[in-house]
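User: Teach me something about this protein's shape.
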Amino acid sequence: MKVVNLKQAILQAWKERWSDYQWAINMKKFFPKGATWDILNLAEALLEQAMIGPSPNPLILSYLKYAISSQMVSYSSVLTAISKFDDFSRDLCVQALLDIMDMFCDRLSCHGKAEECIGLCRALLSALHWLLRCTAASAERLREGLEAGTPAAGEKQLAMCLQRLEKTLSSTKNRALLHIAKLEEASLHTSQGLGQGGTRANQPTASWTAIEHCLLKLGEILANLSSPQLRSQAEQCGTLIRSIPTMLSVHSEQLHKTGFPTVHAVVLLEGTMNLTGETQPLVEQLMMVKRMQHIPTPLFVLEIWKACFVGLIESPEGTGELKWTAFTFLKIPQVLVKLKKYSHGDKDFTEDVNSAFEFLLKLTPLLDKADQRCNCDCTNFLLQECSKQGLLSEASTNNLMAKRKADREHAPQLKSDENANIQPNPGLILRAEPTVTNILKTMDADHSKSPEGLLGVLGHMLSGKSLDLLLAAAAATGKLKSFARKFINLNEFTTHRSEESSWGSAFSSSTAKAASVRALLFDISFLMLCHVAQTYGSEVILSESNTGGEVFFFETWMQTCMPEEGKILNPDHPCFRPDSTKVESLVALLNNSSEIKLVQMKWHEACLNISAAILEILNAWENGVLAFESIQKITDNIKGKVCSLAVCAVAWLVAHVRMLGLDEREKSLQMIRQLAGPLYSENTLQFYNERVVIMSSILEHMCADVLQQTATQIKFPSTGMDTMPYWNLLPPKRPIKEVLTDIFAKVLEKGWVDSRSIHIFDTLLHMGGVYWFCNNLIKELLKETRKEHTLRAVELLYSIFCLDMQQVTLVLLGHILPGLLTDSSKWHSLMDPPGTALAKLAVWCALSSYSSHKGQASSRQKKRQREDIEDYISLFPLDDMQPSKLMRLLSSNEEDANILSSPTDRSMSSNLSASQLHTVNMRDPLNRVLANLFLLISSILGSRTAGPHTQFAQWFMEGCVDCLEQGGRGSILQFMPFTTVSAAPPGHWPTLQLRAGQHVAGELGVQRPGGRASSSWTSHPPSPC
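Assistant: First, the predicted structure itself:
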């Protein structure tokens, strides 16, 4: 049979009883690909054929359901087809149509052009009109049935109609679509007025007026019904329909900010780059952000959890994922415990945490994604940990767990067959925490008494991902420095035991066994320390220097010989040129021996001498004295027993390759390639495969820069995964300024900073320097002209500046702001809204830096070169020993006109310098910059020339006072001269004058002899507005 149209195709399918998938296949064969099924009106044709009789045709209905599920037809075409059915007396047909609507009414979507999206809105409006008509018809039948004594006739259908109506309207998204349809109808009325010959052909088939009429009719019918349940359900639906026209205005009035990108970025930055940092600085920074941005506590805690889950999802596989898991499940609960102390009461904070979790449970896609990534119920682990820390009551914990469990039942299958047996990282991290404590206790024991037992413990740490788990747990709980110190002591202990007599006493066997254990303990401790330094920073190793004056071997080697990011080594440095006689012995041993004798080896000396030995071997190879086979034997000897020798050799080779020309690097790179591969031999020491895995990871990190420069690829075996996910992020052959502006534009458009962007910003800050980085980002801020964009940019910039807040603040307040305020050609850029935003950003940075600049710099900031204090002393010259102009200005009175000319004539109270009044160290760069900025602001406010820079000075002062009233450690207003507030134009900012004046007077506590505060505004009160 040749198919001519849709009707014939449907009839043929029905006659031959095709299954739904057979029908779909044949339909695609019958009809060309050019026209879509919506254009052919497939949904309407199927419904027309299915609803011919008193009951629907189940086979044809199955075709329609298959077409909906497989997206052959759009939701709008189905809704439009349903709304054309008007024989409500056929109960079975009506019920079938309601069931079809039930398939998708709660998940309406449209992927296409704008016209198709508007079409969905119109179709939904038509479907709502049809539902109301159907409900009214059912209610009418029920009323007639009650009068005739047969109430069951329409009650079931009425209940079904009200149920579908309630389900459709309960979705905010659906009501928003209906609101759009109503607005579209109004715009069509305007553009196609009937009085001007317009047509209503393009309008929706159902108008809002018709819906209101149906609603009135339905209310009249239901008023006579005796069922309170049905009446209540209908009234609720009517309320939802009547609220649709006012959705936009109500939404704008009740709109509350629920996203805080600064908190999000601060948490992401800490979890990504500073896992080993102490919790107290993070707590203070978060509290500072909370006060400055007036964030409610539940939303504040919610944003912290959101950032943690985003970090988990974004984290790269391997060490990065373990770090984020430890940060989320171990460190953040400890942070919240400390935040709890800032709360007014334990009960209040517990309720706030519970509210935050209630909000978090509504973010089902985020939680499902995190569960899928971690292969477990992350929320359950988190709730248990919070309950253990006293952040949640037992009842709240159980309630939240039950809600999340119910949500997970509707989620897609989270566990696949291949990873069903893999233990989830959160559980492993939580179990690793007590293991770290036990290992630290084991390491405190006397190593010489049971070296074999200690070796067994270390061997278990090397298996699988145990080492990274333990290190992540130790880093998150603040035990990593102690952990590293124990291994430094162990490594040093093996270097002092060159004679095996004391070791042999611990063994029942020969001295050779003692030498083997000594070599393994040295190698494992050396590799672990290298891995810790590369993963968490060398500061973890060096932070706790030995107070006894003893210099440990590993610390010496790491400082002088180990390549790191941003650290360039000189291969001709004396540290690479030890005793020549020992070097010759080592070269002969590596070249002539088939196997290194463990008893004869002093491994720390071999590690120090291996660089010079490699140079001799490399020269011999390049001059043809040694063949490639000899080089293979030498490299096999180097890596055959202890992997630390190979690490030391490659460390020197990396420094050596940097100094060579491109055509001179071949043999050096080939030697690195030989040392990187494992030795396939049975005559190796215990745990060799596990040690090779760590060695490969260490060598890959060491060689990354050199391999990138030389465009060389070396395969590092046994690593199993990409160990450097954020390496080489910048696009090649693009100016870094373009990269900076592009990435900031993307972040601003997105509204939050992700992990990858954080790494790119950090790389650009390192490459371009603090001034270049800060100056270009401030230029981007001043380009914004919309208020909402500038406010978002301020929040994002503050979070980006947290990469190195101290140095950025010095540059911003000491260089960029003075440049803008003193150059009249730039004053136009300080107008509102970008000027207001810049003032807010400057205040936030100043307060954050001042409240924390006495603390320790984080590990990520220590890597970057600090600004020299002498630069700021020369920029803002002050003399701490004698009175200076700035000191006098900071403590002067406007009443005393002779102050500047004759400082010696002042009274005792007015002769006090700022450093005496505030005990401020004016040699501190930040203090000098703040004092200079306030002097500049004071001179601007007292100037006769007004402009945008004057307004900026006011915004800056208002921001200082506003943040001051939120509480905080210290106040930058103490750097404000007494003349500042009174210098403002009379009546210009009286409230600010009063608040700032009261604060400074209270801070200084300076009184006149008569008991009155010696500030100028007490003598010259501000005039009223």
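Now, about its shape. The chain has four domains: 6-188+206-246, 261-410, 574-710, 736-866+916-1000. Residues 574-710 form one domain. If you'd like, I can walk through any region in more detail.
User: That's plenty for now, thanks!
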